[in-house]
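To assess whether the prediction recovers the assembly geometry, we first specified each molecular entity separately, as shown.
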Amino acid sequence: MSRVALLRLAVVVGFVAVVELLCRLGVITPLTMIPPSAMLLSLVHLIADGEVNADLVFTLTNIAAAITLSIVSGFILGVIIHALPRLRRVVDPLLAAYYAVPTFVFYPLLLVVLGVNRLPLIVIGAMFGVVGMTVSTIDGIDRIPRVLMKTASAYDMNPITAALLIKLPAATPHLFTGVKLAVTYSVIGVVAGEFILSIAGMGRSIAFAYNDLDNTKMYGLLLLLLTITTLLNVALQLIEQRLYKRWGRA
Amino acid sequence: MTRRLDSLWFALGVIALWQALYQIAGDEALASPWQTLRQAAEMLASAGFWNHVEATFEAFGWAVLLSIVLGLAIGLVLGFSKLAGEVFEPILNALYAIPKITLYPVILLFFGLGLPAKVAFGTIHGIFPIILLSMNGVRSIRPVVRKTARALGLSGSETIRTILLPAALPEIFSGIRIGFALTLLGTLIGELFASNRGIGFLLLRAADRQDVPMTMALILFLFVIAAAAGAGLLAIDRKLHHKA
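The predicted structure of the complete assembly is given in tokenized form:
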């Protein structure tokens, strides 16, 4: 392990140790936060009892659906907007300001329109994710080097072959940035929806545990959710690094 | 001119779509554009509403201030120290990416209900992009700029003030722009749970009472404010990047 990685590990371990100590010494009371070791224990219990399985599956499938929806529709929207310069000029400022608008304000409406089930959660997750993907797609197509397009015409490629063999690979790093954004935002949208709408899933379980003052369960659930999202992000970052290396601009 | 005309067409299209959705979905789900506008006008005219706006922006103001001051301080330190930057960057990236709404019970347990919880919630949303982008801003300053500072014999604080900060400013401002939007988001989410005042609270109450026109009017209000602020900051942002 490199020196930097070791130091990083030391920082994280040190931080957890300090929190543990503060909790054990009673500076932070168990009513506020339980010690990290107890969180881990609670997490293990929750998994061993199978208590969270249903919630976890519910949340993860919603997230998967929201991610798929936002990536596919974001890509299509991006391609369409890029192809229509007049539309693009109008929509550009809206896309740029989109994340300044708290999308979650639409939760109550979606609940009424789509009913009390998983659909509003998926839709809100996708609404959160889609614009990141759209903007990255437009960016990606913008930045395809012109020489590559000339190569395509020199080889007499038809538009579809050119799109698949030249444009798509050339735009991949940008598209991947979009995928990363879509994943992050979809996760936030879905989990936030479960919190606020209390339909089902991890979000609701955490909210319920909080209302029951069951800190052991709540912190176990929190640790589980944060571990999953962090692993997801680390995986995405690793893939991104490899992509950039392959495209020769690390 | 075509551009304005296009914008007008687009706006008309959005309103037509909204009206069409209203015809399909009905009164329980949506309010028509006209009903929403009327409700919004009524809301803006009532004194009680502005108390709530004030509550939201009090919390938001503190949260933005904290995000910017703390975020810049941490970001600049990490940007200047290569080792510290490398050690902390992945940790900060991970923190940036976690769905912070899951932390709301923790924030409530630590801060209780009320203003501090809202501020804390806004701050944890806004601070990370500011740290990360100001760190990157300092890092990506071209070495020739630093060399110039040395050649001119500037002192440490002079170098930071007159050379490094201006050079990193476009990136720093991008961070502040994103942080600003996320802080507003965080503050409003905080109000949904941790408050009996503010726009977030009004929104939750309207939704609970199934007061659709009020819900839509509040959404429209937030949308206009957030989009206007976002667009304004973006214009400054682009100008800074263009100049640099």
